[in-house]
Amino acid sequence: MLAYLLRRLALIVPTLFFVSVIIFGLQQLLPGDPALAMAGEERDPQVIAFIRHKYHLDQPLPVRYGLWVAGVLHGDLGESIRINRPVLDLILEKLPVTAELAGLAMCFALLIGIPAGVLSAVKNGTVWDYGANVFALWGLSTPNFWLGFLMILLFSVQLGLLPASGFVSPFEDLRQNLGAMIMPAFVLGNAIAAVMMRHTRSAMLQVMSTDYIRTARAKGLVERIVVLKHGLRNALVPVVTLGALEFGQLLSGAVLTEQVFTIPGFGKLIVDAVFNRDYAVVQGVVLFTATAYIVLNLLADIAYFLVNPRLRA
Amino acid sequence: MAAITLDRTTTEPAETKPWRRALGRLVKRRGAMVGLFVVLFFIAVAILAPLISPYDPVATNWGLVRKPPSAAHWFGTDEIGRDVLARVSWGARASLLAGVVSVCISLACGVPIGLVSGYVGGFLDGLLMRITDAMLACPFLILAIALAAFLGPNLTNAMIAIGISAMPAFIRLTRAQVLNAKVEDYVEAARAVGNPHLRIVLRHILPNIVAPIMVQATLAIAAAIIAEASLSFLGLGQQPPAPSWGSMLNTAKNFLSQAPWMAVWPGLAIFCVVLAFNLLGDGLRDALDPRHRA
């Protein structure tokens, strides 16, 4: 176990190094002089000289990279040029909003995707299987921002049941918070539910054809117990770990969902930063999400290792 | 002792090529055929847009602002009186172009890297895989947004950004296929008769791993079309007044209650074309690798 953990941790170091190189390299993509690009409309030589000095643009590339990494390792992701605040503070401020949205979306994805996958596998080749597969294709093919519009049209404009946009902190008013988050969470969870359904279906089909399921049936167990206790329990192991890998899709989707429903989270932060040419914020958000993805990936691998006795042996 | 006879009518002819057999299986899959038909329909719309489009997609008409669907304007008009059907037809060009070009970029960069990584192995493989892991760690759309932001917002840069962001999947897939193929007998035989490495990779390995790459490419076009629409929706893809489904939705979000048709049609077009590519990709996967059908 320890050897596996150490080997897995050792692989993270070069990955994180290359992540940092890619993200630092983004700045080099700016056409022309980055100082001019950062200055935007402002062409005052003094301002440009200040930017050049502040972001070490007057230093050689390797030195700039070293300074940037040293800053990152000390929790300094730079400063937003728009609102003059540390990028890390901005990310930490927006993180709870996106975390709530992602958490609720994952609940929807699990509540829809897993039962649909089980049903599809157990009723393989029937109209239920066909229906679940149609649902998966629908989920994978619907752009979530368009689904957001359709839901706003139905539930906000036509029926007037839910607010079309806005965010209320759960600490202020939990009811209003859930009312505002239910549509965005469903929109975001829809595509993940489709992926989960496919994972669950595939894992269940595999598990249901194994000898121990045949034995369980031969013992005379009720089919519900065979499916839920013997089948699903074993099929869920790869499903849950694969689910952790959907984190990237969740964050990508959150960018669009937050834009549609005007939720002040992580996604809105990066989009606003892009339009304000706030490049430090863009870099900070990409670095933060990539690091979170790597850590979640590691945790998923460890969980898979822990719950799978064959790997431990 | 009874003589054993082969019934040639019930078995596939021995000389039938694998590609022909796969095509036969693909044609029998109804979903894939529907997908192919819809894809061809959208390609025709994109190519023939100047001929079939009823109006100029950028011509404004202040007397026709936000008119609902009618006999004159089947899909209605937008906030400055432009015909929505004309814009949806012309928008097919941007979406399909972005889908195909960005996947071509991913293929052109990802497949050679995957081939080298899998075939050479060792330190180079380890290095390339760590770089690929680093790219995979950055969520697809967030990386595409960051790249598009730094490169500058336009359709070309959006395609480059999507292509680069989608590349790691092709590197991983190609490498995995090469690792399986390079231990096969036919590769050993090619090596034994003294073929140079480049010839082994290009003439013996690559043709045998094309099928899964093709499936992945078809599914990646669907993802790239959604990504282009997402970037245009955020204002990082096709720039106004040029029509694109994503940018049409971006405008439509401000008029959801007054002119819902502005949001319905471009979204439906994205949904249909993405669904079609997904159906075609699933069908191709089943046809080229029958083990997946379970």
Can you describe what's shown?
The complex is a heterodimer of chains A (313) and B (294). Chain A is mainly α and 313 residues long. Chain A has two domains: 2-73, no CATH class; 95-312, MetI-like fold (Orthogonal Bundle). Helix content of chain A is 78%, strand content 0%. In chain A, α1 (2-28) packs antiparallel against α13, α5 crosses α8 and α8 (174-208) runs antiparallel to α11 (247-260). With 294 residues, chain B is mostly helical. Chain B has a single domain, classed as MetI-like fold, CATH 1.10.3720.10. Helices cover 70% and strands 0% of the residues of chain B. Chain B has ten helices and no strands. The model of chain B is unreliable at 1-6 (pLDDT under 50).
Summarize the entry for a quick read.
The complex is a heterodimer of chains A (313) and B (294). Chain A is an all-alpha fold. Chain A contains 14 helices and no strands.
Low-pLDDT stretches of chain B: 1-6
DSSP helix fraction of chain B? over 70%
Largest sheet of chain B: none
Amino- and carboxy-terminal Cα gap of chain A: 10 Å
CATH topology of the largest domain in chain A, which one? MetI-like fold
CATH architecture of chain B: Orthogonal Bundle
CATH class of chain B: Mainly Alpha
Which stretches of chain A are low in confidence, meaning pLDDT under 50 for 5 or more residues running?
A: none
Number of helices of chain B: 10
Mass-distribution shape of chain B: elongated
Overall number of domains of chain A: 2
What is the number of domains of chain B? 1
- Per CATH, the architecture of the largest domain in chain A is Orthogonal Bundle
For the termini of chain B, the CA-CA separation is 40 Å
The CATH superfamily title of chain B:
MetI-like
> What series of H and E elements makes up the topology of chain A?
HHHHHHHHHHHHHH
